[in-house]
């Protein structure tokens, strides 16, 4: 995912589209995934990152300057410049998504589109893989090693441990994409990243020093921090008559964080169990297969 417009970090609490809903705890941009949900909640399987709510809003206004991203990864210039994304070979390129995706010239035979609106879950739109994976951008390097770039910190304030957690979802979803369309999607992984900007290399070697327990502990600490920050925001920003409603949303936010965390940690368990060699700062296709077919 790349932006055609410059979005200054910490640049005020505004968005050109009604992406952040004042009283809700999630953005409405979490459109459906085309992957079969297999009975798990949409939150677990849609690429939704409930943690983003905390990062989008940042600290309470009264405790410092607005430092949230305000869902910058979906920010769209009202003057027309869109948010460029790539599409996997088998991603739907027609139908409902025509409302918010405008197709661009392909790059190296990889389809690309500008998002010029927003995907609307209520209308049945799907959220493209590039958006579901963000801030990560997986790519295929020499020797069939999947490596990762990640959105630059100036654009995406997501904490590193949540990036590691989200990586698990990306790996599993990417493997499923390859299963659906091996050659075409492998080509996308080789080429698409070359057209993307505002990313930096993402070092996954720290995963080699972690165990499932230590990662779980670190994620829990970050979840608590996000929940406490949300509570502080409610106390400082929300008028007393609306606080009860917002505290109800906070309770739902807690449940959502826990569900998604658990779902991602289950994937991490498989990855650790497969004894992936993280020292090469990537995951070979063979290892990927071992993680998700055993
Ligand atoms: S992915 Fe990053 S930029 Fe996008 S909403 Fe989440 S924290 Fe913000
Ligand atoms: S397709 Fe959806 S998730 Fe992607 S940039 Fe547009 S609004 Fe955001």
Give a structural overview.
This protein has 8 helices and 8 strands, in the order βααβββαββααβααβα. It is an alpha+beta fold and 294 residues long. The strands form 2 sheets. The protein has a 4-stranded antiparallel sheet with strand order 1-2-4-3. Strands 5, 6, 7 and 8 form a 4-stranded antiparallel sheet that branches. The longest helix has 34 residues, at 240-273. The protein starts with a strand and ends with a helix. The protein binds iron/sulfur cluster (2 copies). One iron/sulfur cluster (SF4) binds at residues 29, 31, 74, 83, 85, 100, 115, 118-119, 127-128, 131.
Report the C-alpha radius of gyration, rounded: 19 Å
Distance between the termini: 32 Å
What spatial form do the alpha-carbon principal axes imply? globular
Helix content: 25-40%
Structural class: alpha+beta
Let me know the largest β-sheet: 4 strands, antiparallel
Hetero groups in this structure are: iron/sulfur cluster
The total number of structural domains is: 1
Query: What are the segments in which pLDDT stays under 50 over at least 5 consecutive residues?
Result: 4-45
How many helices? 8
Q: Spell out the helices and strands N to C.
A: EHHEEEHEEHHEHHEH
- Counting DSSP E segments of at least 2 residues, the number of strands comes to 8
Mean pLDDT: 80
How much of the sequence lies in strands comes to 5-15%
């Amino acid at each position: 995912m790349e932006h055609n417009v410059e979005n200054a970090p910490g640049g005020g609490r505004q968005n050109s589209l009604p992406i952040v809903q004042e009283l809700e705890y999630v953005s409405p941009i979490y459109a459906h995934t085309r992957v079969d949900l297999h009975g798990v909640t949409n939150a677990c399987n849609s690429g939704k990152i409930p943690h983003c709510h905390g990062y989008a809003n940042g600290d309470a206004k009264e405790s410092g300057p607005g430092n949230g991203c305000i869902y910058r990864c979906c920010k769209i210039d009202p003057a027309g410049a869109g948010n460029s994304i790539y599409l996997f070979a088998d991603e739907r390129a027609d139908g409902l998504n025509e409302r918010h995706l405008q197709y661009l010239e392909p790059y190296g035979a990889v389809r690309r589109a500008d998002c010029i609106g927003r995907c609307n879950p209520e209308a049945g739109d799907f959220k493209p893989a590039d958006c579901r994976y963000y801030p990560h951008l997986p790519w295929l390097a020499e020797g069939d090693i999947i490596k990762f770039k990640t959105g630059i910190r100036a654009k995406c304030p997501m904490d590193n441990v949540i990036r590691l957690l989200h990586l698990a979802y990306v790996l599993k979803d990417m493997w499923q994409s390859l299963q659906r369309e091996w050659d075409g999607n492998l080509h996308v992984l080789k080429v698409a990243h070359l057209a993307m900007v505002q990313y930096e290399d993402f070092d996954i070697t720290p995963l080699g020093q972690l165990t499932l327990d230590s990662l779980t502990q670190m994620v829990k600490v970050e979840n608590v921090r996000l929940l406490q920050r949300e509570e502080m925001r409610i106390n400082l920003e929300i008028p007393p008559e609306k606080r009860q409603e917002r505290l109800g949303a906070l309770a739902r936010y807690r449940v959502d964080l826990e569900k998604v965390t658990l779902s991602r940690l289950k994937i991490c368990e498989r990855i650790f169990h497969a004894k992936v060699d993280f020292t090469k700062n990537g995951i070979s296709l063979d290892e990927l297969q071992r993680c998700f077919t055993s």
